[in-house]
Design goal:
Chain A: Residues 351-370 are annotated as: Disordered. The complex is a heterodimer of chains A (370) and B (294). Chain A has 15 helices and 4 strands. Chain A has 370 residues and is mainly α. In chain A, the strands form 2 sheets. In chain A, strands 1-4 form a two-stranded antiparallel ribbon. In chain A, strands 2-3 form a two-stranded antiparallel ribbon. In chain A, α2 (32-57) packs parallel to α8. The longest helix of chain A has 28 residues, at 2-29. With 294 residues, chain B is mainly alpha-helical. Helices cover 73% and strands 3% of the residues of chain B. Chain B has helices at 2-32, 39-56, 60-85, 94-116, 142-164, 166-176, 178-183, 188-210, 220-235, 240-260, 263-280; strands at 132-135, 138-141. In chain B, β1 (132-135) and β2 (138-141) form a beta hairpin. In chain B, α2 (39-56) crosses α8 (188-210). Chain B is globular and about 60 Å long. The chains are: A mainly alpha (370), B mainly alpha (294). At the A-B interface, α5, α6, α12 and α14 of A face α4, α9 and α11 of B.
Chain lengths: 370, 294
């Protein structure tokens, strides 16, 4: 009982520390520009929370999270573009290259309510359909990874091939307002950062609840021995699809906040390369842990910005080497080195389980399906 | 009628490129369950080998014929180095090999960019591949016919090698039952390495063929790797003939949808068709018969 109380306090304490860092310390220390950058990293971190759930806990290597990130981002960007154009107006880039006016499938995005609902529902629908279609037929492991990657490729090609509808390879940019607030006003930009920080905290809380719940145990069981779960009478397809859908929604919300914070979305943010790039932060931080993916994603995004400013081609080498070294030699991520994060994670783990055998690895390393 | 013939030929021609790219992949994936994302960069390495050979040998015809074996060796050596340094350690983590080899592909791409520049380079095609061949009033580009022939020859060579040579027998034994093969005295490790050499070598050959299609750039591999993987998924692992059928099928279907709609819609529709196909045959056209679960 004491242990449970303790760990609750640890979790709550960690949460408060995170909130203070994001809501008080960061705005006080960082310039408006740096705060915007941090906001961008937080958007990547939201995607990472979902990847941690689907990949680290569920064993589904989703190499196409850029699709859901992009769905959210493009829907938000369409809404902002229409908002800038005013009621009945035509967005500037569209007026330049075509005279047909706004395509029919853009029209609903004039409504903020529809946009917000669609940002959650559409990715959930896509992920749900794809998840059920593949997992029900027991397509998994590498096959699923390749299919999710092919989806990212197809999505990027679709965006590029449709310049009148989605801005083609330049994407959508030049937003002026967000739900009626000017995006140039520093106060509003700070508010956006707070929204992103709040969203991230909510997602971490949701992920934590999912991890410690019965469902979380079932998800890990599916990762480690899907057949056994099936023989016990559960449906692994549903369990895995739920995690995949959750990850998709998180990625979509991250994408939707990315647009007003960064001010541009293009196919370069959604294709194969950025989709796989999202994975490395999760791997470095520790894919099975709660906070590892978040911290890893922020750290990698920060390193990416800093290093590509000074040595542009060097960053690609570093990224490649990180994939090679971390995945091959440190599959548990930095958390498995026994950092603070790992200890916290262990506490979450032990709270639910009977005392584990002493020889058990501190951070379970998924072996990956066959 | 003319449209039909042209589209089918375009499809077969696209399929032959896919087949060349996917043959090696099917071999290494089937053999070891290792997914080599750097396979696309091995293709690129083969293409740049053809470029370098052409700088040395001035005659376009000779340089093409010299490039084929040289690119095979270049691709093969790259594959063996990858296998010996990284993949050897992670046979039991097939999903992780995907990401590790992705890292390798990033490094290889950037290396190529730094050495040869970001812009594409051109390899001059020999004169005897210029222009079309007229058959029954239809014009077929010679270079495309050459690639089609090369793909079929590569497949026949691989199939015959697997069927009739001692090494082929060892590879088949390892694919079907690794432990039993091991206990029968086959060194599966050595077999793995040779398989990787051959599979990656085919990637090099595919790269040489691609120089006949257009100019080559460091991004060459990325544009083919996803399609090549889809071919392997649709064809089913462990059997090379699945890859052949899948490659030509995908090529023809894609070229047909592209003709009636646009290239970008074709990509999306083909993806949807593959998902639908996997609902019927989740393990591809040919599956390996095993008694293991699912």
């Amino acid at each position: 009982m004491k242990r449970i109380l303790e760990s609750r306090w640890v979790v709550l304490g960690g949460f408060v520390v995170g909130a203070v860092l994001l809501f008080v310390v960061a705005p006080a220390l960082l310039s408006s520009f740096r705060l915007g950058l941090l906001g961008k990293y937080l958007c990547y971190a939201m995607v990472a929370v979902g990847i941690g759930l689907a990949w680290g806990r569920g064993g589904m290597l989703t190499m196409g999270q850029g699709v859901f990130f992009g769905l959210g981002a493009y829907m938000m960007a369409m809404h902002l573009k229409l908002g800038d154009a005013g009621p009945g107006g035509v967005p500037d880039f569209m007026a330049l290259i075509s005279s047909n006016g706004v395509p029919g499938w853009w029209e609903p995005f004039r409504s903020p309510a529809f946009t917000l609902v669609a940002i959650v529902l559409l990715p959930a629908l896509v992920a749900g359909l794809l998840g059920l279609a593949t997992f029900r037929r027991r397509i998994r492991g590498a096959y699923f990874a390749i299919l999710s990657q092919a989806l990212a490729a197809a999505f990027a090609i679709l965006l590029i091939g449709n310049p009148t509808g989605t801005g083609g390879s330049t994407g959508l940019n030049g937003f002026k307002g967000f739900l009626g607030f000017s995006l140039n006003d520093p106060v509003n930009r700070r508010l956006l950062f707070f929204i992103a920080a709040g969203a991230l905290l909510v997602m971490v809380a949701v992920a934590r609840q999912l991890m410690v719940s019965r469902y979380g145990e079932l998800l890990v069981a599916c990762r480690d021995s899907e057949e056994r779960v099936r023989f016990l009478g559960y449906d692994p397809a549903l369990v895995k699809t739920f995690a995949y859908v959750t990850a998709a929604v998180m990625a979509s919300v991250g994408g939707a906040l990315f647009v007003p914070i960064v001010g541009i979305v293009s196919p370069n943010d959604v294709g194969i390369v950025p989709s796989i790039g999202l994975l490395i932060g999760v791997a470095i931080g520790g894919r099975t842990t709660l906070l590892g993916p978040v911290l890893g994603a922020i750290a990698v995004a920060w390193a990416g910005t800093t290093l590509s400013e000074s040595i542009p081609s060097g960053w690609t080498y570093i990224q490649g080497l990180m994939f090679m070294l971390v995945i091959a030699f440190l599959p548990g991520g930095l958390a498995s080195l026994g950092g603070v994060v790992g200890d916290l994670r262990d506490r979450f783990d032990r709270r639910r389980r009977p005392p584990a055998p002493a020889a058990a690895p501190r951070v379970p390393v998924p072996t990956g399906g066959s | 009628m003319e449209i039909l013939v042209t589209q089918v030929f375009n499809g077969l021609s696209g399929g032959s490129v896919l087949l060349l790219a996917a043959l090696g992949l099917a071999l290494t994936f089937g053999q070891m369950g290792v997914i080599n994302m750097a396979h696309g960069e091995f293709i690129m390495a083969g293409a740049y080998t053809a470029f370098v050979v052409q700088q040395v040998v001035s005659s376009a015809g000779v340089s093409l014929l010299v490039s084929l074996p040289v690119a095979f060796v270049v691709g093969g050596v790259l594959g063996v180095v990858l296998e010996a340094t990284l993949l050897r350690r992670m046979y039991h983590r097939p999903l992780d090999t995907l990401l590790v080899t992705w890292g390798v592909s990033l490094v290889l791409q950037q290396l190529t960019r730094d050495v040869f520049g970001t812009a594409g380079v051109d390899v001059v095609a020999p004169e005897w591949l210029a222009g079309p061949v007229e058959v029954l009033g239809f014009a077929f580009p010679r270079s495309r016919l050459f690639i089609l022939g090369l793909a079929i020859a590569a497949f026949l060579a691989l199939a015959a090698g697997l069927r009739f040579t001692p090494l082929g027998r060892r590879i088949r034994a390892t694919v079907q039952n690794r432990q039993l093969a091991e206990s029968s005295g086959i060194s599966t490790r050595a077999t793995d390495r040779l398989t990787f050499f051959i599979g990656s070598g085919f990637a090099g050959v595919a790269g040489v063929a691609l120089t006949l299609v257009g100019s080559i750039s460091p991004n060459l591999g990325t544009s083919y790797i996803v399609d090549a993987f889809l071919v392997v998924v649709v064809g089913g692992i462990g059997q090379i003939k699945g890859a052949v059928i899948a490659a030509f099928l995908l090529g023809v279907v894609q070229s047909w949808i592209e003709y009636t709609t646009t290239a970008s819609i074709a990509k999306v529709l083909v993806f949807a068709l593959i998902i639908a196909f996997l609902q019927v045959r989740p393990q591809g056209i040919y599956k390996l018969r095993t008694r293991s679960l699912a």
